[in-house]
Structure prediction request, 92 residues.
Amino acid sequence: MDEVEIPHYLDSQPQIFFWELDEFAPVIFFMGIGIATDTLTAWIPIMVIFTYVFQRFKISQMEGILTHLVYWYGVLPLNRRFKNGMSREFIS
Prediction:
């Protein structure tokens, strides 16, 4: 049997320039707000600060923290069996 090399970054997020997708999405969101309200120059510092703080948060936490937080706060269901992510005790 031949060995198959598995890429190291197979499960990593897609990148846009040097940002990961979840770091770039808020920039697009804030840019859209700035364009819609005709105050784009006022939103540029907010975009930069938010992206910096968000990157620092992601670096200081374990990998997959955003997915964990989404399930923890009940934004998405865990799976078909456990619909409510806000439940802290599961009785089957």
In short: The CA atoms of residues 34 and 40 lie 4 Å apart. The mean pLDDT is 81.
